[in-house]
Amino acid sequence: ERCVMNNYFGIGIDAKITLDFHNKREEHPEKCRSRTKNYLWYGVLASKEWLCKTYKNLDQRVQLECDGERIPLPSLQGIVVLNIPSFMGGTNFWGGKKEDDCFLAPSFDDRVLEVVAVFGSAQMAASRIINLQHHRIAQCSSVKITILGEEGVPVQVDGEAWSQPPGIIRIVHKNRVPMLCRNRDLDV
Length: 188
Fold this sequence. Notes:
single chain; alpha+beta; 6-stranded antiparallel sheet; 4-stranded antiparallel sheet
C-alpha cells in the first residue's frame, strides 16, 4: 500500500495520541468543535500517555535504517520523520535552524529527511516551549522502519493516524513542489 507524506511521519507515542484524539472526535464530535477544546483533549491524552507509557519499549519493537544503514535506537517511545522543520502545530521538533558539527541545517527543498526520537509526552510538550536538540537521530534521503512482532503500532502521516500491522515502511522522496515562503528580509 502506498501513502503520500508531505510534511511528517510519526510512529509510537505521537501517533497513539493522534489516533486516540481521532477516535474521541469520532465518538463525541460535539466535544471537539473548537481549537481550545482540541488542545485540551490533546493535553488530556498526552497526560494519559505520560502515566501509562504505552510505547516505552518502542526501540525493541521497531528497527530503523537510514540510507541503508541500521541505526541503533536509544530507549524511546516514538520516532518522527520530518520533511519540513515544523511538527505538532508549528513546533520546530528538529530543534534549531542552523548547521552544526553533525547535521546540516534543515530545509524545505534539500530532499533530506530529519529523523527525531520521541522520549515521551513531557518532551513533546517541552519542545513546544524551548528548542531541544538532544533528540536528533539522523538526516537521510531514505528511511526504512521495520515493525517487529505480532501487534500493530500506531503511525501517522501528516496528522492522519491508524494502527499499522507488522511489516516494512519505506519513506523516500517522490518529487518536489514549489512552495511560498515568507522572506523576512522584506519585512518593514
